[in-house]
Known about the structure:
heterotrimer; A: alpha/beta; 6-stranded parallel beta sheet; 14 strands; 44% helix; B: 339 residues; mainly alpha; ABC transporter involved in vitamin B12 uptake, BtuC; 14 helices; 69% helix; 0% strand; globular; disordered N terminus
Amino acid sequence: MSRVTRVGIVAAFVLALATMTGLTTAQGQVKVSKGTIAFLLSGPDLYYQDGMNGAKVAAKALGYDLKVYTNPNISPSVELANVRNAIAAGSVAITGYSVGLATEDASISAAGKAKVPILLMYGYSPKYLNKPYVVGFEQVNVIEYGKKVGEYVRTHASGKLAIITGQLGRGDAEGYRTGFLQGAGCKGDLVKGEPPMTCAGGKIQYVATETGHWLRPAGYKAAQNIIAKHPDLKILFSENDDMAVGAHTALVAAHKDKQVFMTSMNGAPYGLAGVKAGWIKAENTDSPALEGLNAVRLIDAYLNKQITGGKLYYSYTVFVTKENVDQAVGWEFFKDPKLVAKYMKLPLLKPVANPPGT
Amino acid sequence: MANVQLPVRPAEQPPPPAEAPRARVRSRLRNVDVFALWPVAVMLVIVFVTALRSEHYFTVFNFENILSQVSPLGIVTMGQAILLVSAGLDLSVGYNIALSSIVTGLMLEDGYPLWLAIAAGVGAATAVGFANGVLVAQNRAHPFIITLGMSIFLFGLDTQLTGGAPVNDMRGLYTAFGGNLPSYPPFFGLPAVAVPLGAVVVLAYALLRWTPLGRRAYAIGGNEEAAYLSGIPIKRTKIYLYTLMGALVGLTGMVLAGQINEASFNLAQNFELESIACAVIGGTALFGGRGGALRSIQGVALWGVVQNAIVFAGLSSNYQQMALGAIIVIAVMVTRAQR
Amino acid sequence: MPDAPLLRIDHVSKRFPGVQALDDVSLVVDAGEVRGLVGQNGAGKSTLVKCITGVHPPDSGRIVLGGEPIGTYLPKHAYELGIAVVHQRTQLIPWLSVTENVLLGQLPTFGGAIVRRGEANRIARELLERFRLDIDPETPVARLAPPERQQVAIARALFRRARFLILDEPTASLDAARAARLFELVRDLQREGVGVLYVSHHLEEVFSLADRITVLRDGRVVATRPAAELSQSEVVTLMAGRRLEAAAARSAAPARAAEAAALELDHVSTDVLHDVAFAVHDGEVVGLTGVVGAGGHDVARLLFGLERPLAGEVRLAGERYRPHGPKEAIAAGVFLVPEDPTRDGLVPALSVAHNITLVDLASVSRLGLLSRRLEQAVAGRYVRDLSIAAASVDTPVRNLSGGNQQKVLVAKALAVGARLLVLEEPTQGVDVHATAEIHRIVRGLAEEGRGVLVISTDVRDLLEFVDRVVALRGGRVVEDVAAAETDYARILDLMVGSLQAAA
């Protein structure tokens, strides 16, 4: 390649980049608002995207700008750089998702030094309770969330049970399983969650657990392996709807979908469709969009000094079966202004009275 | 651009050792490659041991499972093996598989006919392969970095196209690849995804063994300088091979999206490294000139059998990762030892 | 001057499979002496240098430095012993600065941790000033021109307080002014008591610098005499030994003026070549010779389309020939057999058959698929014709000996029906028996009507089987003569330049 071509390529690239960045800043400068809330978007998955979309509509309704800081590869260093950039850009508050507990400490500390209030969805840690510059944490009550599904299984199903968990190691996947086993009345080390256990007074036998990494292809594989090892499986609990869809596809391919009582969690659009269609018997749902919306409302209340900092809030969840599936708060209500207006009028979340770890 | 230089003439060199007749016999024995079958041997041991532990293990159903699990990976591994033979590789396959599935899935959602959606999906992946080929052929940079750049680019493109949301219904593709073949001969109820895998293994074997293109791949991978001095069109050959890889990636995208009935950016996570690992486990050299389709498919089979056996052993998936990691290292040691 | 000589080589022998590289060599160099070491290619100069620097431990005999015998040691210990060698291709680390290269491993530091940059640069600059070399010591070596790099390498040797310095073809990349500076430096070092072994093809240089001259031939010392007592022509005679009989009967060169030459170089110039003109006719073997760097290699590159002439033109069977790359060259019927078969010519992991048929795969294919039967037939024929010693045509070529690899390369050329073969150093590194066979094969190619150009630095070998000899010196043709009408000593003389060359 000649020197001229190389210079040309570099020049064209610089020009394209300059045009792109120039356009976005020009757009951002037009609006006048109460200030900019920074949103940390960790990972490209639909859950996080919809959380961001919920926050966006709430910010708009309350008169804020929402600037999104993406971190598609879930990298701790990118998150820290995002937090620093958000502070440098004069954000009035920070919300969104942190990539992990250790990174969260660094992000909260950076925000605290700059006296920028921060509210994170998920990643609760008791050491930040009542810290003034930390608005708090908003997340589902992990144990309770799984427990509801377990209770339903205890009363409605019997036989061999298997669980497909999400990515282990962050505590949430383990917590859902523990809650589910509690609800199903299993006897054993529920925190560790290893099979075999007998549940519901002998009616249910917990025989296998596999991780599906929160993803469909892995959920598909996990279900294949479980059904090969336990052809007489009767109950399957999947910790999210993506894995549930993958597992169901595998069960259909193996002609085992009719024999297995499938339960799930999440309330994703395709999960709710499964409940409606009947192949998911029951699931506990929460809406990331509603979580995002509530996060911005809590920040607004904090900035207006209506609430104090350092609290834990539990997300709004709805347990659904085929009968009440319409009551679930959808993930994509932000597309409908009427629903947005309705959820903006919900009472503000109340802090948890006795948060775990106190 | 490939300005291959005749080397500066070295000063006097000691002559290489002359070949004694006995050494010749020994070198001939060394050519008989008993180690090439090591994955099969390891598999037999694993199957035997696991079958003792679980009555459900040694069943037709379970082996169909394994076959259905490794089929998409197997297709892409064939492409990777062809590239590795020519001293290339493609790190963009994971997100390129996703791209082809997303293009097809979005078009199906918008009501385009199946054939057009498939043509567009496979076409997109093939175009990416062609782009990889042109970039690798035109630059002296290692394909590692070129295709890594492509991979990161495609990750962004994939998430931009879908906004992170999966496409939930692959329609005709699911009908084709979601189930099993009829249970009578000659289909024996095999998973449908095994059909494209079988076809691709035959194709890759034929290409590497019987076609001029395959021979050129070995020559370029074995000694690019000599290949150039033999008048082999290096650039064009590389572009052909990467484009072929793109087409195989497109096929993998269709098969995988049809099997799982989903199109999304994380459809084929880690396929790039797993496909390279499988090819290397089977004895294809990471730096070119050696290996082949049958060897590499052995690596895929071992990969699938080990993953499945660990589940049957009742061990957590962390042990899967540990075992697969160990296999890669052992593979490199074993295939090194045969040189 | 101390009584014990600085370096003493006692009865050193070194054998490589098939070749006695050094045969009972003894040599004594005093402190403050410049010793010239000359000999034809393959006479053992490099092997001797490698024995002294520890690359090849001698099979027998010993090396004594400063009165102390040194046993086996590695090249990396050579510096510690006070021996330094400067090659044509110097071993410097490209992206480190001049200072770092010169002082590498002994940079001055604060407390062993932090490099004292200023101090290091000062030391480096002082050393460089001895060459009147005006370069910034912080420049990365990769940015320097080759002659400057060489001077940096010498500076490094000086910094290590080398007691014994070996200069191996030091002026190959230097222009006249730089060479003169180098000579001054060598004389300076001599005054400081450093012993210098000066290895060169250029006899003028050796005569102007050396106190004594040692001549090697076939791994033996044939003479060590004070330079003042020798003439250049005597040295050439010593290097050549007795005149060899012309081995094979050669076709008496017929008059060829009428027909167009198979290959014709018409006053071709490149960066290295100057106004080169000669011709190769069908059925003729032409030998092109010259010392390393004289331009033979560049002619090969030119003919194979790896380089293009800046002036003049090349004609093939009377037509203008200007290939863009090997592919076009091969299509035009020209084939290059490069000098290092495993590196440049063959794919070591592929079989004999696959290597032979590699160039024209279409000819062994049916319906676009390779035919094993055709491949075996083609390969089998050449394996027989050239008597390639391989267990079978399926043996990977990496398992073949050097001579047989050369033959596989020739087979490759024949398989595409090349009209003109260019062989570079075809007998380098092959044993006597294989050499004779290669001679026979090359003659056979010519008898079939092909033109053959053999490019070699080994004049004695060339004279045994070529029809004409073209000698190059400094990129110019200094001789173009029928082999029968000249002899080794004369060609060697022209190559190394003791006679006034008529360009």
